[in-house]
Automatic annotation (TrEMBL):
Record organism: Nestor notabilis
Keyword ATP-binding appears in the UniProt entry: yes
Name used for this protein in its record: ATP-binding cassette sub-family C member 8
Domain ABC transmembrane type-1: 41-338
InterPro entries: ABC1_TM_dom (IPR011527), ABC1_TM_sf (IPR036640), ABC_transporter_C-like (IPR050173)
Length: 362
């Protein structure tokens, strides 16, 4: 009995460990389906776009600080014949960077949608070929609703939701990294204040991801009987009408629908829980206020003693105000991406189905 209990504990711990892990294989399967040329284009366009966005903010900060310093110098010299500050070089550089940022945003959006379209077509065609060539024992042991769910809900998730979530996740992650890079360049002491905020986000997303994945699996498991019952009802409609069992099958369909709606309701409530915890808790707001306070104090101190320009101080404070928001969106998008990668994982499981053996047939 002691051996049995220890084995059960080991199995439970292994299950919990698997629940806490990210589906990296499904992520690799999705990215590998994009192709060798399209994936580097997607990554490079994202990096270039956010680099240009940071360059635009830096150029605007430098323009502002130079304009203020030039005006102050003219007032100190009290020179009426001195030339005014020349804004032309700054405006040209700023316009070029803005145009380049618009073009890169367009290229990034096209690359993301193109990646999603190519991955969906490849996975759908591979799944269709596997199902057509599958042996008869596969259809005898696999529910019809499960097959329909792979071609309908999972393909819809891969086609519409994963590209948008991937773009949001990459954007929020790169925005967070670029904000940290700018703040560490302006005021390196700010990184000390970021430690409690990062720890809190880590534990919240770790706590949320397991529950969110389980609720998504519950939603998927309650959707399979609904699809199976509907398809069986449509196929046997003549027999059902002959025995006058319409009310019984209608009631069964409503019960399956209620079960699936309950699971969807809990999943939506879990998403709202994350939004409330990440955006509205007093502890999180206090930490964000402390982060901004420390960034402001260190920026002003650097400006007074290290001759840091006022434009860079404003740039650092602006990014400090947005760091908590970037972390919030990064955690939410990471949880959504993990849920949606379950569709790739389920389709990848069907792709491992062995085809019927046609050797010896004419």
């Amino acid at each position: 009995e002691e051996v049995t209990e220890s084995d059960d504990e080991d199995n439970l711990s292994s299950v919990l460990h698997q629940r806490a892990k990210m589906p990296w294989r499904a992520c690799g399967k999705y990215l590998s389906a994009a192709g060798i040329l399209l994936l580097p284009l997607l990554v490079l366009s994202q990096l270039l776009k956010h680099t240009v966005m940071v360059a635009i903010d830096y150029c605007l900060a430098r323009w502002t600080s130079d304009a203020i310093s030039g005006k102050t110098e003219i007032e100190l010299k009290n020179c009426s014949h001195c030339e005014d500050f020349n804004h032309s070089p700054y405006s040209k550089v700023f316009s070029i960077l803005c145009c380049l940022g618009i073009v890169l945003c367009l290229v990034t959006s096209i690359a993301v949608e193109w990646t999603g379209l190519k991955v969906t077509k490849k996975l759908h065609s591979s799944l269709l070929n596997k199902i057509i060539l599958a042996p008869m024992r596969f259809f005898e042991t696999t529910p019809l609703g499960s097959i329909l769910n792979r071609f309908s809900a999972d393909c819809n998730t891969i086609d519409q939701h994963i590209p948008a979530t991937l773009e949001c996740l990459s954007r929020s992650t790169l925005l967070c990294v670029s904000a940290l890079a700018v703040i560490s360049y302006v005021t390196p002491m700010f990184l000390i204040a970021l430690v409690p905020l990062a720890i809190m986000c880590y534990f919240i997303q770790k706590y949320f991801r397991v529950a969110s994945r389980d609720l998504q699996q519950l939603d998927d498991s309650t959707q399979l009987p609904l699809l199976s019952h509907f398809s069986e009802t449509v196929e046997g409609l003549t027999t059902i009408r002959a025995f006058r069992y319409e009310a019984k099958f209608r009631q069964k369909l409503l019960e399956y629908t209620d079960s699936n709606n309950i699971a969807s309701l809990f999943l939506t409530a879990a998403n709202r829980w994350l939004e409330v915890r990440m955006a509205s808790t007093l502890f999180f707001e206090y930490i964000g206020a402390c982060v901004v306070l420390i960034a402001a104090v260190t920026s002003i101190t650097s400006c007074l003693y290290n001759k840091l320009s006022s434009g860079l101080v404003g740039l650092g404070l602006t990014y400090a105000l947005m760091v908590s928001n970037y972390l919030n969106w990064m955690v939410r998008n990471l949880a959504d991406m993990e849920i949606q990668l379950g569709a790739v994982k389920r389709i990848n499981g069907l792709l491992k189905t062995e085809a019927e053996n046609y050797e010896g047939l004419l």
